[in-house]
């Protein structure tokens, strides 16, 4: 379903690669956790799957397609088969829960009759069938994330990417979100989730891929968040501190004078600013083109 074939991504000349010699595959129907410290390469992997950025070397395949051979005008169609869920929900504040989900269908020209059927189905699936007319500020954080997941899944994508989807939620609410993602996975969608949520990873016991310095240092079936792997940063076996550079394995060292790609920098490894969902971007451009009927449902 997703394959990285000897992929290296360097954002700036002279900078340490965000990912390096990445050779890994996620099969159809898998649920995979990506774990690692900030700047380890997790979000860069997601950006390449969405064709938000291209590898410097190597090839990325999604659903058997070489992304380097997909022209720019076909990228929106690619992204319609990839759902994306963010830590900060990214809901449109002036639109109800129903309308936020509805728009993901409207922008691809889904017939109104189909929209009227699918949106209530999605609200029911995420347990919000009685809150379709609520605005985002009238919903709890967990409910907003459920709406965001429904919006990402309403087109029935074959892949769902989740970037820290439980990061802003309390542990109890996070469990519900993980159960929902698990249900989506059981319906056949490949789920790849980047997270720092120890509890989520330990409870789910799915495949765990740990990144350090742009490289995969652990790929474990039914894994836990922490590991005995000697090159693990998150388990405390490898210091996440430049003061301990001499202790790093040589393959993971950054040359003197170089800095790892920052997740906070303009060319860094974070999705928060640059990786905008295609449907959200379209909504901002065309929001005024949608009037509202008496029930608060957007009209085309």
TrEMBL record:
Keywords: ATP-binding, Cell cycle, Cell division, Cell membrane, Membrane, Nucleotide-binding. GO terms for biological process: cell division. SMART domains: AAA (SM00382). The keyword Cell cycle applies. GO terms for molecular function: ATP binding; ATP hydrolysis activity; transmembrane transporter activity. It holds the Pfam family ABC_tran. It is a peripheral membrane protein. Signal peptide: none annotated. Its main location: membrane. One of its GO terms (cellular component) is plasma membrane. Part of the ABC transporter FtsEX involved in cellular division. Has ATPase activity. NCBIfam families: FtsE. This is Cell division ATP-binding protein FtsE. It comes from Brachybacterium alimentarium.
């Amino acid at each position: 379903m997703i394959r990285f074939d000897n992929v290296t991504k360097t954002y700036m000349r002279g900078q340490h690669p965000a990912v390096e010699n990445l050779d890994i595959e996620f099969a159809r129907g898998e649920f995979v956790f990506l774990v690692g410290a900030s700047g380890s390469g997790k979000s860069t992997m997601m950006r390449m799957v969405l064709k938000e950025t291209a590898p410097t070397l190597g090839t990325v395949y999604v659903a058997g397609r070489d992304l380097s051979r997909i022209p720019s005008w076909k990228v929106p169609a690619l992204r319609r088969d990839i759902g994306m869920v963010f830590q900060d929900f990214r809901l449109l504040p002036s639109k109800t829960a129903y309308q936020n989900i509805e728009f993901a269908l409207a922008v691809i020209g889904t017939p109104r009759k189909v929209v009227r059927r699918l949106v209530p189905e999605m609200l029911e699936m995420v347990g919000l069938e009685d809150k379709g007319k609520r605005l985002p500020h009238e919903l709890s954080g967990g409910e907003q994330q459920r709406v965001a997941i429904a919006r990402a899944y309403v087109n029935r994508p074959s892949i769902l990417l989740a970037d820290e989807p439980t990061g802003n939620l309390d542990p109890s609410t996070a469990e519900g979100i993980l159960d929902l993602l698990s249900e989506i996975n059981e319906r056949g969608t490949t789920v790849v989730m980047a997270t720092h949520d120890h509890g989520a990873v330990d409870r789910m016991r799915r495949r765990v891929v740990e990144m350090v310095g742009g490289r995969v240092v652990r790929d474990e079936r039914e894994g836990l968040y922490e590991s005995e792997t000697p090159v693990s940063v998150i388990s405390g076996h490898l210091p996440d501190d430049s003061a301990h550079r001499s202790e790093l394995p040589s393959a993971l060292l950054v040359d003197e004078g170089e800095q790892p790609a920052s997740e906070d920098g303009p060319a860094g490894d974070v999705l928060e600013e640059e990786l905008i969902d295609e449907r959200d971007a379209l909504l901002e451009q065309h929001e005024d083109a949608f009037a509202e009927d008496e029930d608060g449902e957007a009209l085309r």
